[in-house]
Amino acid sequence: MRKYILLLFLSAFGIFCVAQDKYILLKPDRVFDGEQMQTGWVVLVKNNKIEQAGAMMFKLPPGTPVIELKGMTLLPGLIEGHSHLFLHPYNETSWDDQVLKESRAERTARAVNHAKATLMAGFTTVRDLGTEGAMYDDVGLKTVIEKNIIPGPRMIVSTRAIVATGSYGPKLSADNESARGAAEADGEDALIREIRTQIGKGADFIKIYADYRWGMNKEAQPTFTFDELKKAVEVTQSSGRKLVVHAVTPEAMKRATLAGVATIEHGDKGTEEVFKLMKEKNVALCATLSAAESILKYDGWKKGVDKEPQRITDKKKSFQLAVKTGVTICMGGDVGVFAHGDNAKEMELMVEYGMKPIDVLRSATSVNADVFGYADKIGRIKKDLVADIIAVEGDPSIDINNIRKIKLVMKDGVIYKQSND
Concatenated DSSP letters for 372-403? Predict the structure, then answer.
């Protein structure tokens, strides 16, 4: 009899302890599903996944809370394609001084604040392209976010980035061996070793500087040969990861494209020939328009008042040429050069420079998810994907500025921000 009673008690206790599924129904005016704007849709979230998305043709579980989002647009959580969470705006502290004078403890503390600001701005994922001297601390930051110790976006990290010896900064006097903002590696053997080291330390992808400002007159010139880049891509891809490059010159962009990289960052001087090659080889462009504008503003340029700098004129032309050529465009602003939380600036400039708002929304959601290799998890409002969802006031496909009017931020099914103001 005692055994029977004990079994009954344990059974009842087990049933009581089974976690109940948590449902939330979101009812906006419209839903951007990552590809198209939909009307008449609702989205049902179950725990941390999207259970249903579409017309209300399903039975609602009893007791499901309903969040009314009148006048609002629901979107997948935005994906920042080019971030540096361990940097802060250069008009606050120069890049050299951040790398040389700020302790890693300070830089990590700042990165914690940057991560929260990014999430609150509706960017639930960031692809972070290098700690710039903070070693592998992006892996640690990613881990504490995943453990819910601090709020922040899900992170896709590259750790240190890789440069050719002598090309990268900080550069002081010739006899001053200062710290470097990235890992130096030359030749195929050294590249293989460095790539595998970074993978072992937790890198989700590899970043290489295919050119840099180390020419005779400090102009950008290629740093790695085609064979070096090809070997780096081969080694990276053999681990199931992607390799991306910083490149602004046509020659470096061409070498990287033929080597098989996934994305080219910046691409300032891209030509029609290079962009056609990129399209043919399915290499995406992350143009980082905001970085160029921010740096020029720090130097005194007053947009709308002063004459447009040649650098901006050239950047507009190359970006428009990339769009016209049909290159896949990722959304990424090189945030860190400018303030974290102001990530939407890049989306606004993409429209200003010639992209349609609906295409910019795609770039910041489904396109980034596809290009970065995360389409099975994020980037769309779709059944069984992770519930990374935001709501904004108005319709950002008509006015991209509405993307700043964040009213709801949900990441992994958890609501981090909700406002009806």
Answer: HT-TTTSSS--TTSB--EEEEES-TTT-GGGG
Q: Give me the amino acid identity at 154.
A: R
Q: Is the pTM of the predicted complex or chain greater than 0.90?
A: yes
Is residue 118 within 8 Å of residue 99, measured between CB atoms? no
**Structural domains of the chain, ranges and CATH numbers in brackets:** 2-76+381-418 (2.30.40.10), 78-372 (3.20.20.140)
Burial class (CB in 10 A: 0-12, 13-18, 19+), 76: buried
CA gap 307, 295 in Å, rounded: 16
Instruction: Tell me how far apart the alpha carbons of residues 338 and 227 are, in angstroms, rounded to a whole number.
Output: 35
Mean pLDDT (10-residue bins), the chain, 421 residues: 49 55 97 98 98 91 96 98 98 97 98 98 98 98 98 98 95 74 97 98 98 93 98 98 98 98 98 98 98 96 95 96 98 98 98 98 98 98 98 98 98 94 62
Backbone angles phi, psi at 63, to 5 degrees: 80, 10
SS3 13: helix
Which residues sit opposite 285 in a β-bridge?
A: 264, 329
For the chain, the residue count is 421
- Which DSSP string do the residues of 296-348 spell out, in sequence order? HHHTT--TTTSPPPHHHHHHHHHHHHHHHHT--EE----BTSS-TT-THHHHH
Helix or strand holding residue 349 (H, E): helix 344-352
